[in-house]
Write a structure and sequence with these properties.
The complex is a heterodimer of chains A (110) and B (112). Chain A is an all-beta fold. Chain A has strands at residues 4-5, 11-14, 19-25, 32-38, 45-50, 54-58, 61-66, 71-76, 85-92, 98-100, 104-109. Chain B is built from no helices and eleven strands. In chain B, the strands form two sheets. In chain B, strands 2, 4, 5, 6, 9, 10 and 11 form a seven-stranded mixed sheet that branches. In chain B, strands 1-3-8-7 form a four-stranded antiparallel sheet, with no helix packed on it. The chains are: A mainly beta (110), B mainly beta (112). At the A-B interface, strand 5, strand 9 and strand 10 of A face strand 4, strand 5, strand 9 and strand 10 of B.
């Protein structure tokens, strides 16, 4: 089992819709969870982080964490074509190890 | 702004060469990471360091070594480059455990 798993996509949504991206992780001891966005040919950049169970909202983005189910998700409301990118889930495991999923490619069409 | 700088954007090396990839961060971060990114495989952790002269293996350390003699600099070394090490290499740093990692611009290495 991979340490951090994501559906590779592509996930296609129309402009204005909600995009839902999901991630599961295997290490029950993980404490910190991150969502990064990566445009083609660019480096990943942080969108959100979450440490506690529940929801965290920042503008159009909401991160959700369920530690019992080892599941973290990212919701993007009012999706825009500029949101089209690959979204990477990252988990901080033991001893500072930061592990990424393979990413989900999101396509927002006008 | 945090800045993570990788020494080269593009690099072409011959099979068997010893290759050094350098990474420098300017924010006094404790942790530094080296990843490689390949299509369909995502970002895979090669090595990371949580302090000067300290290093830990990631998921794919074979064929690589690292050096961290100063806090701001983390070097990735390919002892004898092979064609299967052709990839995008990304360096990152974070202040401490559980905090945001900042990435360099990446080095696209081609081994011929």
């Amino acid at each position: 089992q991979k340490e951090v798993e994501q559906n590779s996509g592509p996930l296609s949504v129309p402009e204005g819709a909600i995009a839902s991206l999901n991630c599961t992780y295997s290490d029950r001891g993980s404490q910190s969870f991150f969502w990064y966005r990566q445009y083609s040919g660019k480096s990943p950049e942080l969108i959100m982080f979450i440490y506690s169970n529940g929801d965290k909202e920042d503008g159009r983005f909401t991160a959700q964490l369920n530690k019992a189910s080892q599941y973290v998700s990212l919701l993007i409301r009012d999706s825009q074509p500029s949101d089209s990118a690959t979204y990477l889930c990252a988990v901080n495991e033991w001893a500072d190890k930061l592990i990424f999923g393979t990413g989900t490619r999101l396509q927002v069409f006008p | 702004d945090v800045k993570v700088t990788q020494s080269s954007r593009y690099l072409v090396k011959r099979t068997g060469e010893k290759v050094f990839l350098e990474c420098v961060q300017d924010m006094d971060h404790e942790n530094m990471f080296w990843y490689r990114q390949d299509p369909g495989l995502g970002l895979r952790l090669i090595y990371f360091s949580y302090d000067v002269k300290m290093k830990e293996k990631g998921d794919i350390p074979e064929g690589y070594s690292v050096s961290r003699e100063k806090k701001e600099r983390f070097s990735l070394i390919l002892e004898s480059a092979s064609t299967n090490q052709t990839s995008m290499y990304l360096c990152a740093s974070s202040r401490d455990t559980g905090t945001e990692a900042f990435f360099g611009q990446g080095t696209r290495l081609t081994v011929v």
